[in-house]
Design brief:
Elements lengths: L7 H8 L3 H21 L4 H21 L19 E2 L1 H8 L9 H8 L3 H6 L2 H4 L4 E2 L2 E2 L7 H4 L21 H13 L3 E2 H14 L2
Antiparallel strand pairs: 1-4, 2-3
The chain binds iron/sulfur cluster (SF4) (2 copies).
The site of one iron/sulfur cluster (SF4) has 10 residues, from loops.
């Protein structure tokens, strides 16, 4: 079977399931990737299309599973962990945000964080560079990995030091497809690389 990039949560689920289930999930991811590649060239439009598919599938699944989410405005423990972003999503965010205004010192620190750093450093240091006044400042264009973060339990479980938050497979499938399409990397790494390549092209 073709080797593809999977979110950590899907990887964890697939390890516990049989080969038939694994094949179904991977086939679904490949089908989304192929459809998107056929319909769009690389860039912000493709990221937007994937986010739309993901939001629709997430809403459908929440309704189907009768989930009552704990997620609400101001709840942001899930914004203190390493988050993956694709190139297409980088293009989309860059079309809305001046990257040079972001906290470069914080991103340089986060770029070198170990798993332990993410779990144990103060929240001020692990907060995503887009988290402003306890809310996502790029909510409409936030990455697929963030869109997949939904939880029905205690929000404290969503901190990396606890790491118990649940998985919504339907949302993780699209997040995996999004990142397979265009070079996934951590938010601070991706932004610092983009800033560097812009500086070099001046
Ligand atoms: S995923 Fe967890 S921390 Fe994030 S908004 Fe939902 S309940 Fe809150
Ligand atoms: S992009 Fe937004 S939702 Fe995602 S981690 Fe950063 S602040 Fe949170």
């Amino acid at each position: 079977m073709e080797k593809i990039w999977l979110t950590n949560k899907i990887t964890g689920v697939l390890k516990q399931r049989d080969p038939v289930f694994r094949r179904v999930v991977v086939t679904e991811i490949l089908s989304i990737i192929n459809d998107m590649k056929r319909r769009f060239s690389r860039g912000a439009n493709r990221a937007e299309a994937l986010h739309k598919v993901q939001d629709e599938k997430t809403t459908e699944a929440i309704t189907k599973h009768l989930m009552v989410l704990s997620c609400k405005a101001g709840c942001n423990n899930c914004c203190h962990q390493p988050v993956i972003l694709s190139n297409d999503e980088m293009d989309l965010i860059e079309s809305k945000v001046d990257l040079s205004t972001l906290d470069k010192i914080k991103m340089e620190k986060q770029r070198d964080f170990t798993e332990d750093d993410w779990k144990h450093r103060p929240k001020s240091e692990t907060a995503c560079v887009f988290l402003k006044d306890n809310a996502c400042s790029i909510y409409d264009v936030r990455p697929a990995t963030c869109r997949a973060c939904v939880y029905t339990g205690d929000p404290e479980h969503c901190l990396p030091s606890v790491g118990k938050s649940s998985i919504l497979l339907e949302a993780e499938v699209v997040a995996s497809a999004t990142n397979n399409i265009s070079e996934p990397d951590l938010i601070p790494v991706k932004i610092l690389k983009r800033l560097m390549s812009k500086a070099e092209s001046l």
